[in-house]
Model the fold of this input.
Amino acid sequence: MDRLDIRLLRELVQGGTIWPANPKLTSSHRTLARKLGVSAGTVRNRVLRMTRAGFLQGIRVYVNPSALGLVSGSYTLQTPQGPRRHQVIERLSEVAGVVFFENFHGPLLGLGLVAVDDAGMQHLLSEIDQVAGCPRGTYTLVHHPPCGVRMNEAEWELIAHLVPDGFGSYRALSEDLRVPIRTLKRRVAKLVAGGALMTFPRMNYRALDHGLMAELLVAYAPGPSKDASRSAVIRELDPWMTYAGVWVEFEIYRLILPNLSMVTHLAESIAEMPGLLMSQMELVDGVSDRFEALLPYIARHRASLPRPDRRSSRHRQRALVPQVRRPARSLTFRKDRT
Done:
């Protein structure tokens, strides 16, 4: 991959923001081309090439944790090597609140977590430590964009469909939900504008023929020089950086590097920079998500919606119908014919 591919992936993953994912559902080739300073045809060909190679595998959609009132965080811990590591990952995949896995070639494991509040997050961390049988790792709060939209039943149904299945096309979505395309576009536009939906491309890192997926974890010393230190690190990583997670306790930078020598060079170069408390370079083995874990929270919000009073609704409808007074029937008596 060249630098244009890296910049394109960065736009697909974060959309030019500091959020953990892209706050838009889709971006047209023309919009991406305008940001990158190339033609729409060039963007189209690059995306098609990465898709045919098996690197890009569709769009994943998840509901913004802020829309669910959840606390979100990232947790890294040292896990045992060998077969027991696979057992630990399998058991952790069943823990409620774990929505994201990042597996490294070494003992490090990265998790994306959600909980109802800070106390729930601490309980979740303790449960993870117990399941993994490992000492306490490193946790950081992850900020998501605020959500300023209220969802109705139809919009929650749309979200519940997108989270496990992802987004393919409006036509396929219309056929699945039996809703007109125009209505779906209107609902999606409302959810995206309100910050309820976030997306990122699903990528198969093992499909990279000429490149290595690496991740740099950095913790900065607090103080007025923190921003300058961060800027220096980002300038050094910019030609290879596809994602920047600017979090509270530590930050991560995801990279596609050409070879192992560049991995070593960058790790040593960053470690020598002033203002850093910690820097650690890891090779990424794979990334997977478990967004289905958000479905119970979505169902809870759907269940909390006020239900219409059908009885009062019928009374209102009856009151709106004009009542036609019918003339009273005249009673007639016939004499018996005998």
